[in-house]
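Q: For a teaching session next week I want to show students how multiple molecules come together into a single three-dimensional assembly. I've collected the sequence lines for a complex. Could you give me the predicted structure tokens for the whole thing so I can convert them for display?
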Amino acid sequence: DAGVTQSPTHLIKTRGQQVTLRCSPISGHKSVSWYQQVLGQGPQFIFQYYEKEERGRGNFPDRFSARQFPNYSSELNVNALLLGDSALYLCASSLNPTSGYQQFFGPGTRLTVL
Amino acid sequence: DQQVKQNSPSLSVQEGRISILNCDYTNSMFDYFLWYKKYPAEGPTFLISISSIKDKNEDGRFTVFLNKSAKHLSLHIVPSQPGDSAVYFCAASAQSGGSNYKLTFGKGTLLTVNP
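A: Of course. Below is the structure for the complete assembly, covering every listed component.
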């Protein structure tokens, strides 16, 4: 079975631009979470979605938004990019939010903002 | 304020010996603890977990110990193998908002197992 997939693998943007990252969860998983990992830090929670509804949000500005589609895939959007948004963006899936402690991660999208 | 702390950025051990990775937490609401392993250019891979109602969980070469009174957990790898060389993240989970289990991660410990 395929694991969590993310696209693109790498992305380079300039300050002020907008970016969209995509994630497909493991088949049968209905919950998707997004994390940001900056160099030297652990992943930091951004959003959790379940059944197309936002179930949790971390301490990130409104420039960050996400959505989940009927097939449970998800997109993370970041507007007005800043240099500090450069990071590895990880998507994780789980069966549902209450089994979210066992989350399975994708390989991530490496975003570089110049 | 960092709720999950891994105070050792790196650890080096000899093949065949025991590796002990430590983690401290401050939030008493955490009810589940996990260890993830991460290789470069890959996402974190789930390794082992423990519920807050237990004090030990074992899976093959990996054992996690939880000391709730000290708010401390540790991961033991015996025997260590060169393929275990990776960054290890400690993570904790607490139900919030009634239906959301977000993971809070430490900064990670780079384990190097020397042949």
